[in-house]
Amino acid sequence: MLKLKVSLLFILLLFACSMDLSSQTSNDSTIDHLVEGKLSVELNAGYGFFIANQPKSLYLRNDHSRMVELSISRQTTGRYQWEKENSLPRLGIGLLHGDLGSREYLGKLTSLYPFIHFPLSRAKRSVTSFRLGAGLGWVEKLKFKGNDGIVAAD
Hints:
The chain has about 150 residues and is mainly beta.
């Protein structure tokens, strides 16, 4: 019972905290070409599944989860010392919405969170980066029955 609570809490934190490692090509990845206030809009989609580690939680998994994320970010330019020390990260806000794969018991998820996107290395044609964010999340139908840790539907 405690393991189910911990598993569900971990999954909710995983969705609420976005952590992304990525590498993308860029034609002007040098610091000299960064423009203050330059905005980026990003749209991402995700597809996955709920891993049931206990037999009693198997009923939660009846479909794959599907997520869509919209994020808007601004490039920093080194105006502040912390920006220079962190290789000019991007600051932004993200909106995540999706189906958790259990419409009957969990429903849909919506999350709004600020994030900071740290570049780990800048090469001539690519940038490898790490994105970290935490914010508010809402799960449509998540309820617990008493103290036994079982998820119930409305």
